[in-house]
Design brief:
By secondary structure, this protein is an alpha/beta fold. It has helices at residues 2-8, 47-59, 70-79, 94-97, 139-148, 161-169, 180-189, 219-232, 235-244; strands at residues 25-29, 32-33, 37-40, 43-45, 63-67, 85-86, 100-102, 107-109, 111-116, 132-135, 155-158, 175-179, 195-198, 207-209, 212-214. Helix 2 (47-59) packs across helix 8 (219-232) and helix 2 (47-59) packs antiparallel against helix 9 (235-244). It is globular and about 55 Å long. Bound molecules: arginine (ARG).
Length: 246
């Protein structure tokens, strides 16, 4: 009976379909977003990387993590061939939910303004009339467009957050808007660069990160389950402490 059932149902697991048992799950990321994912001595490391590892172990899934860049990540996940899911500090929002499925949330975030220490900018409204850098296609871009207008020519879009910050250091943009933990990490690790962060809870909303799947992915329920277990077991707190120190 069990055999018969197994033979007639749709295969529940892409990872163990008959013939190619234990196919690896391919996870994509944009490793230019410390402390979540970044390159260190040729390896992708970060909070997301450790969390992913704990979750995949918990779910009993074999995986490979690939650094494919932010914009390509979205197309790759949508097609679901080259990449089965993404972890990349990706904010869950209604817009993206039309095209993708998301895991349960695993991290709360908001936006911050990164400026030089001597900048006259004090809050988000001061960004009006200033040249502002964002990573293309991020919720940071959306937040700045909401403040300055969608077609505003003063909004400069960069392929990743690292190059946006480089442009700020080189006297290009006057501010960068990015996720708070990323802005804080940069300031903390680069005291010589003389940058500071500005919060503005009135103008920047809180958001949540999730793993992103192609619509209808069979991995999602399994991974949601595993995320919950990693949180309940205290493993999440351990990883959080490693990367955020408290
Ligand atoms: N949380 C923001 C978003 O979802 C930015 C994420 C950027 N992540 C990255 N790895 N570059 O739009």
């Amino acid at each position: 009976l069990f055999m018969a059932l197994a033979g007639c149902g749709k295969s529940a697991e892409p990872t163990s379909s008959a013939g190619d048992a234990k196919k690896k799950v391919i996870v994509g990321t944009d490793a230019s977003f410390a402390p979540f994912e970044y390159m260190d001595k040729g390896k992708i490391v970060g909070f997301d990387v450790d969390l992913l590892d704990a979750v995949m172990k918990e779910a009993g899934l074999d995986y490979d993590l690939k650094n494919i860049g932010w914009d390509p990540l979205f197309a790759a996940v949508q097609q679901g061939k080259e990449v089965n899911l993404a972890i990349s500090g990706i904010t869950i929002n209604d817009d993206r939910k039309q095209t993708y499925d998301f895991s349960v949330p695993y991290f709360e975030s908001t936006h911050m303004i990164l400026v030089k220490e001597d900048s006259p900018i004090k809050n988000a409204l001061d960004l009006k009339g200033k040249v502002v850098g964002v990573q293309n296609g991020t919720t940071g871009q959306a937040a700045v467009e909401k403040l300055l207008g969608k077609e505003n020519k003063n909004i400069k879009k960069f392929e990743n957050t690292v190059v946006a910050i480089m442009d700020l250091l080189n006297g290009g943009v006057e501010a960068v808007v990015t996720d708070n933990a990323v802005a804080n990490e940069y300031v903390k690790n680069n005291p010589d660069k003389k940058l500071k962060t500005i919060e503005d809870p009135t103008n920047f909303e809180s958001e949540f990160y999730g793993l992103m799947f192609p619509k209808g992915s069979e991995l999602k329920p399994k991974i949601d389950e595993a995320i919950k277990k990693v949180i309940d077991s205290g493993k999440y707190a351990e990883i959080y402490k490693k990367w955020f120190g408290h």
